[in-house]
Design goal:
The chain is α/β, with parallel strands linked by helices. It is built from 15 helices and 16 strands.
């Protein structure tokens, strides 16, 4: 490992000094611990408690003893969601309003677009550390790897994190040609090697148990466990994959209908919620050959196995908390960072070449195991979001509305929270539950505290006339009361603004813009005010995030392998030239 700074943020040092001076009595024995579990690319109905066929008994147990959110929203992709979760501040003020691959050159470096978590915002770890908490994080971070943006600089006492958008789950290597290495860091030190028996979900939990075991038991803790499940590459132990043999053989339309019916039966959406159509351009299951169907179903099995494996390892952490007497005083929050991953990288010739050069296999007999690479594609992603529309990278409800579960002391049990809420509400809510105050000198929270909802003191935290905006690379939404103004950009949107009643029509099947022109104009003005307030920098009207990522992939592929590919081409050209000269002389 390389040697880096060993300093901690000022907030963390302040918290440590106060804890040493005051001791446990000064902080009070009733202060709750917090465990935040971040799942990656999980659809609205992917958890068992939300109607899934996937076995997630440990996540479901927390849902049964806590509050399930049915109208909770995040950004369309991981980076802005995580920035808002950590800070309670709109992403355009954090430095990370979009995925780094989507930020345009003219945007990068502009205020709020620094490309890493900036110094104008404080993290929930910094706030809680100043209040005497030990703060720990393991798993995906993806908010910056500089000496000012790593978790160790932002209030976390210990951290073992991945700062790439994803990585292999079995070994220390990257998953995209965009990266030359997987950026794992422990505190300020780059990690050169991972354990030989590494599997991401198991390791992330093991490392957190180690950190918690080393922490002062008399101080309350903030623990963030950020799984790679279910980010590509989809990988899981074979025993989990095989549990879903035959489950997906009927195809994605069948799964979407089953999830739609389950969501209605569970009361997650109203009776009579219309079934949305898949976005234009998606295939019908019946159009696939039997061989293609078998391959697609196996990829979906790997996704199911990967999520069940994450649930199993989360259960090990819960067992450890029980054994050490900390479970009863720990508030557990489980959430996904965005909707399900739609990407089908196998369609790209450059990516297929990169997979081959990396030695990745698509062998169905061992898919999910070490050295293999699986993904589900847009059709299964649409089914994972059912009864909602669209998926990750888009502003449809399937990209923005995700499962969230909160359970623990002071949280009302066995309840569904159906009112609108958003990811910026988490940080102020946790601070409220801790009885702590926000640090001065930073951007104030733009979210509202979830605490009244969690305690059962209120049915909603936003009034019927209050508007809340959201934007990422042109994917845009404005929520107010029952209504949502939205624009879905390419690859599966058309850039047109639409208006929906998402209380009665969460699948966004009936555009009200023509029927309610006054309301449409009013909300459009509210959205424009949101953009002006938070410094949203526009993208071109034809911006296509998938195409931009593909272009960057080609560029990275060329930079990495161009010299090796150029040599045989030069030799061939030389041989061709010699052949031409010999023919000419003849």
């Amino acid at each position: 490992m390389s040697t880096g700074p060993t300093r901690r943020s000022g907030a963390a040092l302040l918290g440590l000094m106060l804890a040493l001076l005051g001791g446990p009595a000064a902080w009070g024995e009733d202060r709750p611990n917090f465990l935040i579990v971040i799942l990656d690319d999980i659809g609205f109905t992917d958890l068992g408690a939300y109607g899934s066929e996937i076995r997630t008994p440990h996540f479901d147990a927390e849902a049964a003893r806590g509050t399930m959110f049915t109208n909770f929203h995040v950004a369309p992709t991981c980076v802005p969601s995580r920035a808002m979760l950590m800070t309670g501040v709109d992403s355009h003020l954090t430095g990370l309003p979009t995925l780094e691959h989507l930020m345009l050159p003219e945007q990068l470096g502009q205020p709020g677009h620094e490309g890493e978590l900036n110094a104008r915002v404080a993290t929930i770890a910094e706030h809680l550390s100043a209040a005497g908490y030990t703060s720990l994080i393991t798993g995906k971070w993806h908010l910056g790897r500089s000496e000012t943006s790593l978790p160790a600089a932002r209030g976390f006492d210990r951290s073992f994190v991945l700062d790439s958008s994803g990585a292999d789950n079995w070994e220390h290597r990257t998953y995209l040609p965009h990266y030359t290495r997987a950026e794992w860091w422990e505190d300020f030190e780059f990690v050169e090697e991972l354990p030989e028996d590494f599997y991401s979900s198991a390791f992330i939990v093991d490392q957190m148990i180690t950190y918690l075991g080393e922490a002062d038991p008399d101080r309350p803790f903030l623990s963030v466990v950020s799984f790679q499940a279910n980010h590509i590459p989809l990988q899981a132990p074979r025993e989990y994959v095989e549990r879903y043999d035959g489950v997906y053989d009927s195809g994605w339309e069948t799964l979407a209908r089953e999830r739609h019916a389950a969501a209605i039966a569970l009361g997650l959406v109203p009776e009579g919620t219309p079934m949305p159509e898949f976005p234009e351009g998606l295939r019908n299951w019946s159009d696939l050959s039997p061989r293609e169907q078998a391959a697609s179903a196996m990829n979906r099995q790997v996704a199911a196995g990967m999520l069940e494996a994450a649930d199993h390892h989360f259960g090990r952490l819960v067992s450890w908390l029980r054994e050490t007497g900390r479970y009863e005083n720990t508030i557990i929050l489980i959430v996904s960072d965005n909707g399900p991953e739609f990407n089908d990288p196998g369609r790209r010739i450059a990516f297929q070449g990169w997979l081959a050069l990396q030695g990745y296999s698509r062998d169905l007999d061992r898919l999910g195991e070490r050295g293999t690479y699986a993904w589900i594609g847009p059709e299964w992603a649409a089914a994972s979001a059912s009864p909602l529309s669209f998926f990750k990278f888009h502003a449809g409800e399937g990209g923005l509305r995700v499962p969230m579960i909160v359970a623990g002391p002071g949280v009302e049990a066995g309840r569904q929270a159906n009112a609108f809420s958003i990811v910026t509400d988490i940080a102020p809510g946790l601070l409220d539950l801790a009885g702590a105050s926000a640090l001065d000198g930073f951007e104030p929270f733009t979210g509202r505290s979830l605490a009244p909802l969690l305690r059962g003191e209120a049915e909603r935290i936003y009034g019927e006339d209050e508007a809340v905006g959201l934007e990422m690379s042109g994917q845009s939404a404005l929520f107010r009361g029952d209504y949502k103004l939205t624009r879905n950009m390419r690859p599966y949107g058309d850039g047109e603004w639409r208006l929906f009643n998402i209380t009665l029509d969460p699948g966004e099947t009936h555009d009200l813009a023509g029927e309610r022109p006054d309301l449409f104009a009013e909300l459009m003005a509210k959205y424009e005010a949101y953009e002006a307030r938070f410094g949203v920098l526009p993208v071109p009207p034809d911006f296509d995030g998938e195409r931009r990522i593909e272009m960057l992939g080609w560029r990275a592929f060329g930079q990495q392998y161009g010299p090796w590919l150029a040599l045989p081409l030069i030799l061939l050209a030389g041989l061709g030239g010699l052949f031409w000269l010999r023919r000419r002389k003849a």
